[in-house]
From TrEMBL:
Transmembrane segments: none annotated. Residues 21-221 form the Phosphoribosyltransferase domain. Pfam families: UPRTase. The lineage of its organism: Eukaryota, Sar, Stramenopiles, Oomycota, Saprolegniomycetes. GO terms for cellular component: cytoplasm. It comes from the Eukaryota. Belongs to the UPRTase family. Keywords: Allosteric enzyme, Glycosyltransferase, GTP-binding, Nucleotide-binding, Transferase. Its EC number is 2.4.2.9. Pathway: Pyrimidine metabolism; UMP biosynthesis via salvage pathway; UMP from uracil: step 1/1. This is uracil phosphoribosyltransferase. Signal peptide: none annotated. GO terms for biological process: UMP salvage; uracil salvage. Its cofactor is Mg(2+).
Length: 233
């Protein structure tokens, strides 16, 4: 189940496209994803499950063409996806969202863009771009676990627009109100699909209450105080 967010209450322009997916199971999994007690293995598993559900919502309007097939009992007129889709994970946190999206869209192309947020300025820095020279897709779906300040998302959308993509969607588990405002101020034509919208940002640019640093939590690079663990634990 999904619903379009009340963009006026979020302080967004009237035609902003924000979809908040709502479902009891999704809410349950998002709560576990947020939980500080959730370890890296479970965090990765939950992010995959949440991404698959959000991906299902994000692809609900992809173009199809008629497809004639024969079932074991006779002919049938069905449908076949017509849109060429690119998945664009923002390194490194977006990597954990690729597999479930490929389960959903096995023929999608995957183009990587590397961005990190400068700890002092909070501004995005691009360090990797593997887009082909010529744009070869109809729809680009950016994969980023959270939209906090939206700096990296804004920069990535700009790169994709310059490449030639007209339809851009963004899948994220959680977005901040401020991040959405910044995003739609710069790129009003994108569509955002999330599981939740949180109110505030910390001074360090993290969503509050949010889920912490999605990259660190996925790859277990959160600082451990003097604890060494075996690789198979």
């Amino acid at each position: 189940m999904k619903h379009c967010a009340d963009v006026a209450s979020l302080g967004l322009p009237p035609h902003s496209k924000v979809v908040v997916a709502t479902h009891p199971v999704l809410a349950h999994k998002l709560t576990k994803l947020r939980d500080a007690k959730t370890d890296a293995n479970l965090f990765r598993h939950l992010l995959r499950e949440i991404t698959f559900y959000l991906g299902y919502e994000a692809t609900s309007d992809l173009a199809v063409i008629p497809k004639s097939i024969t079932t074991p009992l006779g002919p049938h007129q069905g449908a076949e996806l017509a849109s060429v889709v690119a998945l664009v994970p923002i390194l490194r946190a977006g990597l954990g969202m690729v597999e479930p999206m490929l389960d959903l869209l096995p023929n999608a192309r995957v183009h990587h863009i590397g961005m990190y947020r400068n700890k002092n300025s909070l501004l995005p820095v691009q360090y990797y771009n593997k887009l082909p020279h010529d744009c070869n897709v109809d729809v680009a779906i950016i994969l980023e676990p959270v939209i906090a300040t939206a700096g990296t998302i804004i920069a990535t959308v700009a790169v994709l627009h310059a490449w030639g993509v007209n339809q851009i969607k963004i899948i994220s588990s959680i977005a901040s109100k401020n991040g959405l405002k910044e995003l739609f101020a710069k790129h009003p034509g994108v569509e955002v699909i999330v599981a939740a919208i949180d109110e505030t940002l910390s001074e360090e640019g993290y969503i509050v209450p949010g889920l912490g640093d999605a990259g660190d939590r996925q790859f277990d690079t959160v600082a451990h105080t003097g604890v060494k663990r075996k690789l198979n634990e």
